[in-house]
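Technical annex B. To support the medicinal chemistry partners, we prepared a structural model of the target in complex with pyridoxal-5'-phosphate, based solely on the information shown next.
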Amino acid sequence: MDNKMMLMIPGPTPVPEQVLLAMTKHPMGHRSGEFGQIMAEVTENLKWLHQTQNDVLILAASGTGAMEAGIINFLSAGDRVLVGNNGKFGERWGKVARAFGLDTQEIVAEWGKPLNPEDFKAALEADAEKQIKAVIITHSETSTGVLNDLEAINRHVKAHGQALIIVDAVTSLGASNVPVDELGLDVVASGSQKGYMIPPGLAFVSVSAKAWAAYETATLPKFYLDLMPYKKNAAKNSTPFTPPINLFFALQTALRMMKAEGLESIFARHDRHKRATRAAMRALNLPLYTADECGSPAITAVMPQQVDSEQIRSVMKKQYDVILAGGQDHLKGQIFRIGHLGFVCDRDILTAVAALEASLVALGYDQFTSGAGIAAASQVFKAG
Ligand SMILES: *Cc1c(COP(=O)(O)O)cnc(C)c1O
């Protein structure tokens, strides 16, 4: 049915009406005082969201643009880096690092399992000469729904002392606690179509003083994604190139909404949706792909056994207008993923679970009592 589509994927995520409406204006000149005011406000609010005094720079790019910027600004060809890889996005970090000629050592974990902080500890402790220039990881691994233990890995990076920590927080920022200053995260990449509740097109990078010091000696070629012009212009409430002005209108509105809700409430809501979704899947006897301890607050991956996950997605879409994500690479056809990231309320979870129950019935799956998923999610909501 037209205009009834409900996006339950991990990006693009649903966009609030206020945010959509904010975009329906003529673009203003980006060298105008009016735009400068917006730039000042969103920059301040981005720092609030990142819990940092560091620079948070805004790029016209998808999240991968922020990842690339996070590498080329602070490293040089041949630099030794450790890259965590336990899914599609960790794998992407490795691809970017190798594309720029970095000496890349991957710390691998099986898809669906978290990265083991001890592996980082061992590699960092073995580096007596302090050759490792950066540790690069994905916080919330969207392809599998695993939240990696950023704090523990970061602790080992800090014990090493030299290496930068570069983090893909694309599906954790605005969903779970990423206290940039408290943890001393050097580079944090994110993108607009995830926790920010705005359409695709903007990417964000926070940069610590230590990372800026590394910038001074980094020699990888860069131009559009050279972050120094972004920093210098941001100091004058401006941008080096023409920004996607209407996305800035969206960003301004979305950040105001986030501030009104408050960080603690935003994190609590995502955590509640994660728990409600997981409880519902258990009640439907649909196996969860990840353990409770490492479940991402942004997305839950499910690996059904007696019913085909692509058929579930198909009925969900055709009959109930609910869009779920499938599996990537070898998980294609093996899992489906329920996004609960960004502009998602308790009712959305109940709606998705109810539509899932109805889809399972339609597919002849009878390993559950009708209403069991809803009952389980309701109990989570009752407890808060
Ligand atoms: C979405 C996503 C990205 C960025 O993907 P783009 O398509 O370039 O926006 C990066 N990392 C993770 C974990 C993501 O979920």
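Notes passed to the chemistry partners:
Residues 98 and 104 are 6 Å apart (CA to CA).
The mean pLDDT is 97.
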